[in-house]
Each structure stands twice: as structure tokens, then as C-alpha cells.
Amino acid sequence: MLRWLSALSARLFGHTPTPPIVDEQSTELRQAAEETALAQRRMDFWIAAQKSGITHCIGVSAWARDTLERRERQPWPTRMPGYFREWLQGLTAGQLDIVGRTEASRLYNHCTFPYVEGCLIAGLPKREPLPLCDLEFPKSTTPLVDFAERRSGGGQKARPAGGRDLREIEGYASRGMR
């Protein structure tokens, strides 16, 4: 705004504006301020990218848990990036179990920094495109019980070793215990 007014006064009154005074200290301060602002923008971008990556890892972990609970491959979440899909399609049921139980930040580090020591999760391959894998789920060892079809509420209650009910013991009811 000042430059515009200075140029206008130069045209109207015929004088030339004085050049701005430049000293080395103000130039150094300006450069330092620009470098600080650039570093802050880079940090903000990095934090936003990390939050976005962790958000994707939360979705990946939830998808893996859903797939294991329903014992079939679930539809991909709409916002899951393609590189996760190409990686997840090649994981076995055991590896999906590891993905489902892993914290999002640890999964993010595994997927983002595969060449940094300590970032990889044991039992999981690096995040890279894998060939499609058929999911074979282990058979359940516990039989599924439908409680609606049961005839009773669990059978006769167990008695103590002496054959008497605790309420029959002298003094038991008088102490306020039931």
C-alpha cells in the first residue's frame, strides 16, 4: 500500500521516492523468519500426514478384526488407500490377526518405515503389493451354543461336600449371610 502511495505521489508531484534502507541485520532477521516459517509448514504437513496415516491404520485394523470375526473377507472401506488393499489381500488369517491386535501407531511405523530397525512387526511382511491369498480360517475348538435352544438354566446347583446346603448349617442364616 505504501509503495502504491509513493508511486502516486511521485507522478503527481514529480519527486522520486527514497529507496528503502537495507541493513544486514534486518536481512538476516527476515531470512531467519522465512526459514522458521518454512520449517513450521513442513512440521505441520508432517503431523497432518502422520495423523492421516494413523487414521488409515485404525481403519485397516478394524477391517482385519471384522474379517476375522465374520470368517470371510469383508468389503474394503471406501477411504482405504489402494496400497493398503494390495498389501492386505495377500495376508493370511494369522497375519490378519496380528494386524487386528496391533496398535495403530505401531502399524503405521511398520507400514511407513520398513527399513528402520525396530519398526517392523514380527510375522508381518513389509507393506508392498502381495498376490491374492485365500483366507483359510482355523476350525473353532469350542462348540457354539445357542442358549435359546437349551431346556434349562444350567442344571442342579452343586451342594457342598457334606451334602447339606449352606442355609441348613447352624448360624449361617443368623449371621446375615445367604
Give your account of this protein's structure:
It is a single chain. The protein has 178 residues and is an all-alpha fold. The chain has a domain at 55-136. The protein is built from five helices and no strands. Helix 2 packs across helix 4 (93-101) and helix 2 packs across helix 5 (104-112). 8% of the residues are buried.
Structural class: mainly alpha
**Low-pLDDT residue intervals, each spanning 5 or more residues:** none
Let me know the largest β-sheet. Answer: none
> Radius of gyration over alpha carbons?
35 Å
Helix content: 40-55%
Number of strands: 0
**Overall shape:** elongated
Count of alpha/pi helices: 5
Quick overview of this protein structure:
By secondary structure, the protein is mainly α. Helices cover 47% and strands 0% of the residues.
Can you lay out the helices and strands and say which pair or pack?
Layout: H1 2-13, H2 24-70, H3 82-88, H4 93-101, H5 104-112
Features:
178 residues, mainly alpha, elongated, 0% strand, 5 helices, single chain
